[in-house]
Structures are given as structure tokens and as C-alpha cells.
Amino acid sequence: MHEHEFRMPSNRVSTRGLCGDVKRHRSDAKHHLRAERKALSLVSDAVAAQLFALSAATCFAASQVTVKRGIKETSIVSSVLISLTVALGVISISVVFSPPDEIRLDGVVLFALGGLAAPGISRWAATTGIHRLGPSIAVPITQGARPLLAFLGAMAIFGEAPSLQRGLGLLVIVAGGWELSRSREDARSLSLGSLEGPVEEAAPSARFFRPGLFFPLLAAGMYATSDLVIKEAVTRLEHPRFGALVGMSTAVLLWMLGALFIRPIRRELHVGSDVGWLLISGVFSGLALISLFSALDKGDVTLVSPLVAAQPLGVFLFSRILLKKVEDLHLSTVLAGSAIVVGTIIVSL
After folding, report:
1. CB 110 within 8 A of CB 227
2. CA 84 to CA 280: how far, in whole Å?
3. Average per-residue pLDDT in the chain?
């Protein structure tokens, strides 16, 4: 009897120890499960960011090429207003079906600033560059400089540190863009009246940097600025489609005010019979902006911007289909554009 009573406490201790082990195992299992879910969430976000970025690249490419078909008879200012207004309609429809639960003023302000840069200013600069140089040259220059500027901005603002591999990819992108800028002897001419002034023929010694290159480079700077501002905005207002709506509304308002109150811009309003291509371009532009904002909501600037810069691949394809009677694609153009694509792949690996 005494022996039995002596063993009972020992059995209780053993049972308690067993229960403690079970609790610890359960706690460890929950910890590992949370870690696995977090890892899967990060992977899922990265994959989603890549898919959204590639979708944006494809839609931007289609928008750039179709706008080329629409500005043969329609002025630059009119083409910008038409395409941006159509894009605003596309984005508005998407927000109606999925409105934001909460709206923060600081997020709205940042989205508006991002829209002012792109597509507000960038759209005009990009469209002018396309008309002067053709999409197979202007778009790769813009998208070659864009990730470089975005990388530098991300390093300075968000503390992102690109690896040596990504630095190598950027060099390939810049080299491809530079070669594309020299792949033709003459740029296409375009008179924007007092908005731009007369086009002067560049001297032979200055052909390595033509005045027409200013426009795709300006577009690149505005796109990169917008990427950085939007990346900060989505951390404050987590609804990328509503952000795209705010940004596009700002751009449309900017151009409408310009058309109403600035006489040189108002004089340039002219719509031709090819306006249908501008409507198509606006649809693609709206889809591209939704995809871009969604990509920046899911991934880092150093991942999204290079993938969006893969537009030349889509431009080459759409140019061959839609612009074969408008623009010739030369071997040097294809090789240089392919170099930019290879560079963006290296950066994103």
C-alpha cells in the first residue's frame, strides 16, 4: 500500500511532463505553420507582382503601337486627351465593382502626384517620342532608362540595394537603349507649333544624340518618378485600382484644363478619321495602369520596374502586325531591343 502511494506522485509528474511536451509540440507546430504560411504568402505576392508587371508590359506595348496608328491625322494633344479619357472610363468601371473600404487623404494625395507624373506628363512625352522616332525605338529608350532611374530612386528612398547581377542587367538595358537611339540616320519630324517650335536638322557631329531623344527620356523620368510615388502610396491606401483611378483622373484634369485655358494647346486640338485607334489605345492604357498599380502593391520597385520595361518584346510583335506599312523593323533594332529584354530578365532573376 505504501509502495503504491509512493509511486502515485511519480506518475502524476510523468503525466504532467507528457502534457507539457504535447503543448510544446503543438506550439512548435503552430509556429512552423505560421512561418510556412508567411513564406507562401511572400512567394504568392512575388508571383502575382511578376504576372501583373508582365501584363502591364504587354498592355503598355499594345497601347504604344495602336497610338502610332491613331496620330497620323490626329494631333498629339487630341490623342492624349482621347486615350486618357478612355483609360479613365476603363479604370472607373473596375472600381465600381470593387470600391475601397476606407479612403485615406495622404494616400489620395500621393496617387494624384503619381498620376501627374505618369500618365499626366509622361503620356505626352511618350506619344511625341513615338511619332518622332517610331515605337520600336522610342519605347525601348523609355523603358531602358526607366528601370535605371527607378533603381536609383528605390536605393535612395526605400533603401533597396540591387545586387551585382541586377547591376549587370541594368547595364545591358542601358546599352540596348543607346544602340536603339543610334539605329536610324534620321528621326521623324513633327511640328507642334508653339508647343515645341520648329524642328531643326541635327549636325552630323551631333547625330549621336538627336533632339528627338528628349521626349522618350522625359517619359522615362516621369514613369520612374510615378513608380516610386505609387509604391509609397499603396502602403497608405491599399487599393491599387482606386489609386489608378485617382492618378488617371489627375492626368485627365490636367490636360483638360490645359486645353481650356492654354491657347497653344487649344490650337493643337484636331481629330482625324483614325480616332478609333486612339480609343483602342486608351483601353489598353487603362488595363496597363491597373496592372502596374497592382504589381507595385504586391512587389518591390526593383522587381516590377524591370519587368514592365520588357515592353520592347511586345512592341516588336505588335509593330510587325499593325505597323508593317508604317514602320520598318531593322535587324539592329531587333537586336538592341532584344538586349533590353535580356537585361530585364537578368535583373528580375
Report:
1. no
2. 11
3. 78
